[in-house]
Amino acid sequence: MDDIDAMFSDMLQEMDLLTQSLGEEAESAPLPKPPTIPGPQEMNFSVGFTDFNASLHDLEDNDLDALMADLVADISATEEKFATEKDTLKGSAPVAPIPSQPPSNLSFPGSSSTLRQATSSNSIAATPPPPTSKPSKEELEEQIKADKIKLALEKLKEAKVKKLVVKVEIMDGSSKTLMVDERQTVRDVIDNLFEKTHCDCNVDWSVCETNPDLQTERGFEDHENLVEPLSTWTRDTENKVLFHEKKDKYEVFRNPQNFYMWKKDKKSLKDMKEKDKEQLLEENFCGASVIVPDLEGILYLKEDGKKSWKQRYFLLRASGLYYSPKGKTKASRDLVCLVQFDNVNVYYCKEYRIKYKAPTDHCFILKHSQIQKESQYIRYLCCDDEWTMTLWVTGIRIAKYGKQLYDNYKAAVRKAAGSATWASRSIQASSSASTPSPTPKARAANGHAPQPAVETKGSSNQTSFPPPPASMETLPPPPPDPMLPPPPPAPPSTNKVNQFPPPPQFPQSSFPPPPMDDLPPPPPPPPEDSELPPDFLPPPPPIFSSCGGEALPPPPPDPIASLPPPPALQNFASAGGAPPPPPPPPPPPAPAPAASKPAGSVRKVAPPPPKRTTPQLAAPSVG
Amino acid sequence: YSELSHTHPHDQYKPTHPCTAWDLTVTVEDLGPDAPPIQISVTSELHIGGVILKLVEKTNLKKDWSDHALWWEQKQQWLLRTGWTLDKCGVHADARLVFTPQHKPLRLGLPNGVTLKMRACFSSSAFRTVMGICRVLNLRHPEELSLLRPVEEKKKKKDKDSSEELYDLTDVPLTAGALNNTSKKLLIHCCSARSHWTLYDGMPAHFADSPKTEAVYKMLSVSLPSPAPEAIAKLYRPASVVDKTHIHTRWLNSSRSLMQQGIRENDKLWLRFKYYTFHDMDPKYDAVRLTQLYEQARWAILLEDIDCTEEEMMLFGALQYHIGKLSLSQDMVSSCQGMDDLESALKSLEVKMVGDSNSTDMLENMTAPELNDYLKIFRPKRLTLKGYKQYWCKFQDTSISYYKSSEDRYGEPIQQLNLKGCEVAPDVSVAGQKFCIRLLIPAPEGMNEIYLRCENEKQYSQWMAACKLASKGLMLLDSSYQNEVKNIQTFLAMQRSNSAAPAAQTDESINTHSLVSPRYHKKYKPKQLTPRILEAYQNVAQLSLTSAILKFLQIWQALPDFGISYFMVRFKGSRKDEVLGITNNRLIRIDLGIGDVVKTWRYNNMRQWNVNWDIRQVAIEFDGNINIAFTCVNADCKVVHEYIGGYIFMSTRSRQQSDTLNEELFHKLTGGHEAL
Predict the structure, then answer these.
(1) Yes or no, beta carbons of A232 and B553 under 8 Å apart
(2) Whole-model pTM over 0.80
(3) Which end of chain A has the lower number of beta carbons within 10 A, N or C?
(4) Closest residue in B to A96 (Cα–Cα)
């Protein structure tokens, strides 16, 4: 029993560490203190902060507050939950199920989050019946112990949900920062981004990844998880996440004839009746199996390990990409399989004429998503023109994802139609935003004003959550990372640091203002600022105007817009649990209504210009 | 014919007055082949019912005559309207009538290759006959099937004929028996309704009468073991598109009865899915339909009736193996498909519940299962000839860590490999006692290739299963782990038995040549084939029987050439034969010389199509004033007409009214001049 006790107290200490770090991170984030070293307990990363300046802005923006609120909410929710459970358990003095749990639990790396959650919730439910004979003092101690375990497990559980702070670049050069947890699909993220930007929410908006090494770009499919692919990026990556419109994302569903009847003269297909298009979709996507466009033709294939490109006659089949070897027929039996799609994704490439001496710049590659650099395992293909490339890439996507793609499209159309008004938007936002917060209670609380929660957390300390510098670092405290080789069980925090040495460019990108800025970093607000909205940063106008100005003209006050509470706030509230610090009055272009409520960031409140409704309504009918 | 009858020598007997009596000659089959025809005295005003009454009285035979009807030999037609007078039917004294049952035994070649003897209606349209057959066989949506004359078999072996007669359903009382007008509606309804069969032990009641009929049902609803490679090789395989047109010359005319088309008692016909649009497939109700469709698809692939790539063939092979294995272990009760899915769903639910409430289970979870063993590891690198080196390996969660020896296992591993997202391939030879696992682990720089060499089958199956799960992000404690281990072991056993004489699939052994078409018999030895199929098998081994069948059908339907029925035609204005492909949504013109698609026309651009029955020409008009016309070279143009009309009929079926079959519309669309 002594052993066990010792182990247990060990574990508790660790737990405390974890808890502390949570608090630390939560409050110190806006603090622009030189982030020389990321907090010791690093585990989850932020992504996309290579452009230091933009990230700085973002960090001081309300987004960050919301992020903080999110984090804090996690903690407070956990504690609340724990508190309520404590109440219910009162009187019973459970013999805590200490023995084997703590050490093994901590050392459990690489577990899938779902499983983990199940486990931790088990432990809460599984308190054995109380041995009533025990003296009350002992009872009490046991009780405390058990409670602590529960708290610890709850936190572990929360911590197990992997979260990334992702910087998303928007077309106009501005960027948004948001927290994505591993349960969220790309669709959820897009919805989030709709909240944060003033784009027209049409179905073409996509979240894309770019890889400057390979000069590739790929739009994530709506059903994909965002965290998983981003987690496999290397630490020093210069990959970026973009949010922009991609016309080819769902083009196949708007004009299926161009893909499924590609052999025909394009002009003759131009005015195909909607009914016929629908039937094409029905035939190809709604049967027992999805029919892949019968693409075939000459493409250039970069030869293994060589610089030369060879013409080959390629055929697309549901089972993979094939070519017919020289001197053979096109008969199925003679085809050679270049690649099957189970393990690879398809990426558009840029400027391969220069990089790889490709015959044209219309290239695409097929590779395992984890491969980030040039490799013999990448298949490089080159097409004569852009349309051919779109055809093949779309065809491959259909072969790979099948009906899912069509479902994504239909969901996107529904969303786009639904977001035509602010009202429906905010409802959707609150329902669809996936929330890392574990308890319903926390959610309930956050709508009101538990500022104190922020405060208490905030004042406790301020080390971690450094403003995201270049590359990645972590947010919430760490259980062993499932994605990475786990360290030995012992203090996970320190080990983690060992595993992820700060990236080389870390220092330069950290807070000392970078040389080439267009925007001076706003003054670092003290932690208390979160309490004093007015003082706290007015969101830098440049970003706002550029963002708003690009997607839509500065909006005149819109009656509809002023009605519902700003969606963004709601989103964060539901996501986090604690209230976001009230934002300041909006910058110039923001219309009056926004100011009426002190919550939510200015950008979100900005009402949609009347103009916006038109494209939105139009979008579905076009599609 | 009317002119003929005027010049007929018996014309003198032609009654001038309706009341004049004359003799009608009728052969009654039930009196035996040697019995002389019966003469009855009739007037032209006597209706058919009266003729039958007189006839029955005269035979003095006491039996149930309700299924009998008059067949007019010379005119090749039935006299089924009992209310019509002889005059109205055009029957005169010169007519030779036969009094014969409408339902006769037929040897029915099923999609799975088995011949089943059963009674079928010889007097109604073939379409309705198929409906009756499907009703007995428990096949929904009979409109998708039809009958065709079999390819002549080379009569070499007589023993084959005897084995063909194993399955006999002729004793099953046909509810579809007397197909009169009142029961017709009911029948039509029943043929597509889902819930009319009283199930007994998971099968329709009429199969539960005897062990014999139970066996028939099992044959119908459970896929058969893989055929011996020799059996596949012996069967006819189309070698070209032209060959593929031949099969379509054999379809019966749906608008006419079997008797009218020269089919006689005990003749053999094939029952096949004719239209490749399978409406409302539901494993719960479609056990037989699904199985027979799978069988038809399987044979189409094995006999190279539909072309596929090598990769696809390996996957088909793996699925066949898997389906065969699961079918063997399946008994009658659970052959009620869908059961297995439900069961597994329940099981997993159970596991979840237990996992949620049981603390000991939780504790077990915390000490995660591991694999620990000495394995040999080899990392191929260019220009290195280093071989395998032995390490102490630990498989935990989704990672393999390896150490110099077991003593070092508490220290830092030499390396840790996270297998999530990696590719796992077997590299196995049972004969050579080689059990390697090839891992391709993705990394930012590319893929890391690593080989793990196991000592024996047992070790291999454990580690292989773990790798396979880990590649999908699952851990050892996943409930599917043990299953995976077992699957790998049985597959290895299969390879072991390959050296023995090739035989059809038994419990543990199978010749991989049974799973692929003869082309691959020539290309690969079973030994070479096994690893390829094993590789494909890894991805399907977890499927339930129903899911595996559905998957097979899905891949089949995704093949580019799926669902094309070929006809040799001569287009108007063209001087060479070409091939017309007919599918569920388009017509395809194929150049015979190159084998290339020249043009496609979609049905939804089709304005109308006509058949000129005199010159046997099909003319079709499409939107935009596009007109095509062609004659059929080797098939009756009624077949082509029926195919096009049939597909258009199939497309009119909607999900809502799936329970009623609009037979009238089918006839309108497919009947041609016979529909009028």
Answers:
(1) no
(2) no
(3) N
(4) B359
- Compute the distance between CA of residue B400 and CA of residue B467 in angstroms, rounded to an integer: 9
Question: What string of DSSP letters covers B596-611?
Answer: -EEEEEEGGGEEEEEE
CA distance B628 to B633: 16
pLDDT in tens, A156-192: 666 677 788 888 998 778 888 888 888 899 999 999 8
What region, left, alpha or beta, does residue B28 occupy, with left being phi > 0 and alpha being psi -120 to 50 degrees? beta
Please say whether the dihedral angle defined by the alpha carbons of residues B148, B149, B151 and B157, taken in this order, is positive or negative.
positive
Pick A109's closest partner by Cβ from B355, B397, B473.
B397
The candidate with the shortest Cα–Cα distance to A207, out of A408, A52, A426, is A408
From B181, B163, B164, B58, select the one nearest B110 (Cα to Cα).
Answer: B164
The amino acid present at A65, given as its one-letter code, is D
- Of A290, A298, A299, A346, give the one whose Cα is nearest residue A319: A290
Query: What is the dihedral sign for C-alpha B136, B137, B141, B145?
Result: negative
Residue A513 and residue A32: Cα distance in Å, rounded? Answer: 10
3-state SS string for A402-448: CHHHHHHHHHHHHHHHHCCCHHHHHHHHHHHCCCCCCCHHHHHHHCC
E strand or H helix that includes residue B271? strand B268-273
Q: Using alpha carbons, list the distances in angstroms from residue A559 to A423, A460, A563, A591, B127.
A: 11, 43, 7, 11, 66
Assigned token pair, B148:
């065709």
Interface touch B539/A342, C-beta < 8 Å: yes
Nearest residue to B121 (alpha-carbon basis) of B47, B175, B63, B165 = B175
Strand partners, B626: B622
> Cβ of B585 under 8 Å from any chain A Cβ?
yes
Closest by CA position to A206, among listed A238, A251, A236 = A251
Rounded alpha-carbon distances, angstroms, from residue B131 to B124, B135, B138, B203, B568: 10, 6, 10, 19, 29
What is this model's ipTM?
A: 0.81
- List of residues 6+ apart from A434 with CB closer than 8 A: A181, A183, A184, A188, A575
Chain B residues close to A285, C-beta within 8 Å: none
Candidates A100, A276, A331; nearest CB to B363: A100
The tens digit of pLDDT for each residue in A443-462 reads 333 334 333 333 333 333 44
The closest of B570, B571, B564 to B634, measured between CA atoms, is: B570
Report how far residue A137's alpha carbon sits from residue B537's, in angstroms, rounded to the nearest whole number. Answer: 61
